[in-house]
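User: Hi! I'm a student and our assignment asks us to look at how structure tokens line up with a sequence. Could you show me two examples?

Assistant: Happy to help. In each example below, the sequence comes first and the structure tokens follow. Example one:
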Amino acid sequence: MPVRNTATHYGSVAMFLHWLIAALIVVNIALGLYFPDLPRADPSKFTLAQIHKSIGLTVLVLSVARVLWRLVNPVPPLPADMNGALKLVARTSQFLLYVLIVAIPLSGWLMVSASRLGLPTPYFFLFDWPNLPKIGDHEMWEDVHVYLAWSAIVLVPIHIAGALYHQFIRRDDVLKQMMPGTR
């Protein structure tokens, strides 16, 4: 499998980043929906919050790499016979997902950085991830982070539905373009 994208298929780097980021996002959505409702006294709340933040920072770094990789690699085209409106929806949703995979973890980092506590994030408990300069207040960034996360919770299933639409209704190769081991 080629490393770079081709005219008909995503390359191994794009596929690896796509599937790894997707898996991390699913885990982080689940954590983000679970740990905030735990009682403050629950000892696992702090640990889960730090894991959530560490995964988010990992998504941010990988997403920046993915965006840069995409800028220098052509994207396989959508099927020529696909309706123009559906192409617009597909490209718009992809663009919005790219925005979200950078904006969600960035807003989380800004939220943590704006906290009155000023604590760094213990990145997977290996080292302290530094805070950004304080911009705005914690509550504002928390609102932004939650709003963006809910946008992803809506958009990710739409993206998956689109991939399944291509696979099972249109029966074209769009999903296969991103699946390892397919041609």
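Example two works the same way, sequence first and then tokens:
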Amino acid sequence: MKRQLFLILLTISLVANAQDKTDVQETESQKRMTEFSKTKPHALSLDVIAGLVYPAFNSRYEYTLNKHSGIGADLNINFDNENGTEALEKFSFSPYYRQYFFSKEDYGAKGFYGEGFLKFYTYENDDRLFFGDAIKTNIKTYFETAAGVGIGWKWVSDSGFLIDINFGLGRNFGFSDDPNKRVFTGKSGLNFGLQF
């Protein structure tokens, strides 16, 4: 029993010592980004594509957990009713978790990332009924939920200005009673904002 306890304590001591050495061996850039992630954990941005292509408001908030990961949510409100976009999402809320990956340098909650997300959204479909020469349009709103994955890249300057580009694909759970059920939903954006 004493031998097993000694081996466990020795293993814990070696692991803790190895972690201390890893932290000490960080480059100056890595130390700066670690500190940046701690002092400026909030990021707020707007999707410029949604604002330019549709009259839509798409905002994103992210909280940096550490230099390797973050959590956040997207909020999308589409105001377009006249340009043939009835089948697009009218409203969506999408919480996500991101894991950041590194190449030659440690980016500190920026750079290439993969994310997992849930998406709760509503959309409209119009059913057209033909009565002789008359056409009656019946617009219905549907609610759907999806789970998916995405990838992206986030740039953050030393002052906190950020650019985030991403793309994701989710599979719907089938909660909608739409006769033309959707199987997949997408998520994409080109966001400009500030990390503070």
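Here is something you could point out in your write-up. Residues 126 and 139 are 4 Å apart (CA to CA).
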